[in-house]
Design a protein that fits this description.
alpha/beta; nine-stranded mixed beta sheet; eight-stranded parallel β-barrel
């Protein structure tokens, strides 16, 4: 959406926080704002890194939940497709024209399996993860019923202690069952070490990934020995992608938060001890908020509280300011420590959320800004798609 004509019946402040062409100063708050220049630089940088290391990059849509952001990642960064976690998210991306979709999760409910098996009819390549041989028969039956084909990745638990099998023997058994099942294709493995992504120290993250990579290599060797060459070995996030890219075994990355960058990820360090939001990635996503009260000395209150940001990964950080600090949130309000009384009523601030994924899921729109003007307004296409 790039022109006012796309919003002929839309009222700013009621339906939407801004229209293309709006001055940045006139955007209604609180809302999500994207610095388009920073976003595009992040996307290009990841694309160039993946290409230089012979890796595919499948960008993770659970972070942004946006068809428009995904298409930008494919156009500017060479992303080969999207990961998502829910069938409902996959349905949104398929309707939006994304042609290669991995549900990087297990799907076991019969109704959800049925919906998943129908998705290839929209012209998209659909893949899903499996960690139980019984799930093979469930997926095969649904795909046969709809005359479609599903691709399957065996999920490896390489340290996150969530889904996935943890031995080469178990992985090989599931892969053999997939190969034997009608309407399914064995495409490889997923091995995403999510538990270490936010460890602050580069060396701590490396130590966890060394263990994961050793297991993945064992699994790949066992699959080859069984005549089951994995086309895809997928994993890697914003906190670990360099390790997977240099492992000699992974060939696909699943990075998501790098594109927006949040306060939690920003605080982890690279091999030189520098924060990655200083030397590696730029903050491109902000919650734009306005000061609404300054009735108490040393304290201001803004209009961004728990209904527009999440605190699961800590408080937001006020971007570009070290004289004021966001210190507390309630439903509709954010409390800002302002010891010198520098903030004014209606002054706008940019907050970097602690965790971009659940924060984005609270909003309807992204307002994309360049050089002080709103350039695009994009829907958060898969907002609330959790089933």
């Amino acid at each position: 959406m790039t022109a006012n004509s796309d919003f002929a019946d839309v009222e700013v402040g009621y339906d939407i926080p801004a229209l293309p062409g709006t001055d940045e100063a006139d955007i209604q708050t609180p809302c999500l704002v994207l610095d388009l220049d920073a976003l595009e630089r992040n996307i290009r940088k990841m694309g160039e890194y993946a290409k230089a290391h012979g890796m595919r990059h499948r960008s993770h849509g659970k972070m942004h939940k946006s068809v428009d952001v995904q298409k930008l990642q494919e156009r500017l960064g060479g992303a080969v497709g999207v990961c998502c976690q829910k069938v409902s998210e996959a349905e949104v991306f398929a309707r939006g024209g994304i042609k290669d979709i991995l549900v990087s999760n297990e799907i076991r409910d019969p109704a959800k399996i049925d919906r998943l098996a129908r998705l290839p009819k929209r012209g998209s390549r659909i893949s899903v993860c499996i960690d139980d041989v019984a799930n093979v028969a469930e997926l095969s039956a649904a795909a046969q019923r709809h005359g479609t084909s599903l691709e399957c990745l065996v999920e490896i638990d390489c340290g996150a202690r969530r889904c996935g099998v943890s031995t080469a023997e178990a992985a090989t058994g599931i892969a053999k069952a997939i190969v034997a099942a009608p309407a399914l294709k064995f495409s490889g493995i997923q091995a995403y070490q999510g538990a270490m992504q936010h460890l602050e120290s580069y060396q701590d993250r490396k130590a966890e990934l060394d263990v994961a990579i050793a297991l993945v290599k064992d699994v790949v060797v066992a699959l080859h020995a069984a005549g089951l060459k994995p086309e895809i070995v997928s994993g890697g996030g914003t906190g670990s992608y360099r390790f997977e890219a240099n492992s000699g075994v992974y060939n696909e990355l699943q990075c998501g938060s790098y594109a927006f960058m949040d306060a939690d990820y920003g605080g982890i360090t690279d091999m030189h001890g520098n924060r990655i939001d200083k030397d590696e990635w730029e903050n491109a996503l902000f919650i734009l908020t306005s000061v609404m009260s300054h009735a108490k000395a040393g304290q201001a209150v803004c209009d961004a509280g728990l209904k527009v940001l999440t605190l699961d990964s800590g408080l937001p950080v006020i971007h570009g300011r070290d004289d004021v600090t966001y210190v507390n949130a309630s439903d509709e309000h954010g409390v800002i420590e302002d010891p010198n009384g520098v903030l004014c009523i209606n002054e706008k601030l940019k907050l970097v959320p602690g965790h971009c994924d659940p924060t984005c899921n609270l909003h309807d729109w992204y307002v994309g800004v360049r050089r002080g003007k709103v350039e695009v307004v994009w829907p958060v296409s898969a907002r609330g798609k959790a089933y």
